[in-house]
Automatic annotation (TrEMBL):
The lineage of its organism: Bacteria, Pseudomonadati, Thermodesulfobacteriota, Desulfobacteria, Desulfobacterales. The keyword Metal-binding does not apply. Keywords: Lipoprotein, Signal. It comes from Desulfoluna butyratoxydans. It comes from the Bacteria. Residues 29-189 form the ABC-type transport auxiliary lipoprotein component domain. This is Abc-type transport auxiliary lipoprotein component.
Length: 196
């Protein structure tokens, strides 16, 4: 009989341990637009801008937030996640930033078919790196370009940005990445206004 009691007690402890570990709270994060109001330069308000597609490396194509360790390995945080697919979050944030920077209201997410005979620009992105590291550095490295309404590539660019994470928690990391997306959006806005 004591052996049966011991098994029941051990089973109860294992069950409680399992419940405790599964009760960890998952926190969801969003990228936020942080671009300043309208930049100098001529902007045709009738222009449609389609933002996307955004291509991600496989290590980022997941809901969990990813950070780099100093030994070039990755840390995937199971309990800190993006609230939306990261490619969609980047496209949405760039579109919102561009709207603020240019004063343009016709910013749409890919796929979107603009009305025929309208002036259209498409911003496409291939993200090489978008993460933070243990030293408190945030990095955005992206190859991008513009297409016209005929889907002809007008230009391609490579932008590499870095910034400081102003804190050690995950919200600080999300804020730092949002600031980099805003800085990237300013580069795109300047190019949209003067694509030469």
């Amino acid at each position: 009989m004591p052996k049966t009691v011991n098994l029941i007690v051990v089973g109860a402890f294992l069950l409680m341990a399992g419940c405790a570990s599964s009760s960890a709270v998952v926190t969801y994060h969003l990228l936020h637009p942080v671009a300043a109001p309208v930049e100098a330069g001529h902007w045709d308000p009738s222009t449609y801008v389609v933002v996307g597609p955004v291509e991600l490396p496989s290590y980022l194509d997941r809901p969990q937030m990813v950070s780099r360790r100093s030994d070039h390995t990755l840390s995937v945080n199971e309990y800190q996640r993006w609230a939306e697919p990261l490619d969609e979050g980047i496209a949405r944030t760039v579109a919102e930033n561009l709207s603020q920077l240019t004063g343009g209201e016709k910013m749409f997410l890919y796929p979107f078919d603009a009305p025929k005979a309208s002036a259209t620009m498409q911003v496409f992105m291939d993200v090489v790196r978008f993460d933070t590291d243990e030293a408190g550095k945030a990095v955005l490295d992206v190859r991008w370009g513009l297409k016209n309404g005929k889907r002809e590539t007008l230009l391609t660019r490579h932008t590499s940005l870095s910034g400081v994470v102003d804190g050690e928690d995950q919200p600080a990391r999300a804020r730092a990445l949002s600031r980099l997306v805003a800085e990237f959006s300013r580069d795109v806005a300047r190019t949209l206004v003067n694509p030469e």
